[in-house]
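#onboarding

Welcome to the new folks! Below is a worked example of what a typical request in this channel looks like: someone posts a single protein sequence, and someone else replies with the predicted structure as tokens. Don't worry about understanding the tokens yet, we'll cover that in week two.

Example request:
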Amino acid sequence: MGNNKPLQAHLSLLSAEIFWGLLAPIGKDAMLHGIDNITLVSFRVTGAALLFWIASLFVKERMPWRHVLFMAGAALLGVVFNQCLYTFGLSYTSPVNASIVTTSMPIFAMVLSFFILREPLTWMKVGGVLIGCIGAISLILSSAHSGGKTGNIWGDLMCMGAQLSFALYLTIFNPLIRKYNVVTVNKWMFTWSCIFLLPFTGSHVAQLPVAVIASKTWVEVFYVVVFGTFLSYLLAVVGQRVLRPTVVSVYNYVQPVVSVIVSVLTGLSIFTVPQGIAVIFIFSGVWLVIKSKSKRDIEKEK
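Example response:
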């Protein structure tokens, strides 16, 4: 069984990234057919919370109340701001742009690590951040002069804000989330998220015209909750605990590839030359940041 751990980690991470890659076109289609952005976020948070509580029945672990309270902050950055900004952004921009922007997260993580964790800056990091920023700005500017199928500047900015929020969550709360089982962490994160969101969204969701929404749309909502949130969060951590961070980061490229193929084939988006150039810049920037040395690597060389 031990010999299969790397293979299981690779397959788990690949599955998670495919689920996330399909989340953009499937979630976008649901929002085009009766489920608005507020309702989709509410379903996603509430559904995932219920599933993680059920899963926690099989995990014998207790979190001290002091840490449970800390998880409120993690919930705001890792779920509430992240999922609200991404889902709202996706409702305005194209699935292709939304998935391309997700590749900027490692860049945000490196910049935040410098300011918060005092990770050293290298020329590769600085160069990677600059190249990635050029790609992101190019993507946003091309969206500002395009139709709905290629993107929307405000949608792109919101999706980018979602990546910044999640990178901040990983940087600040990394020691706490590594201390406990992934089910325990997510159980409390999504519970706090329900507490924060439902008082504001509950009345809106209650007015949803359930009878007029097609079965296909409900299947898409089911996918977003179960595969795009619950299972993908679990599978991602299985891979992250076995594979090196550089390997994990490379798998981030699977999302836009899956999303672009599905979105273009289903007619939800079109892929343009400016988008292709922006992709090259963003991927190159992320690759340079990933390849740069961390504080731990530099200390080992001394």
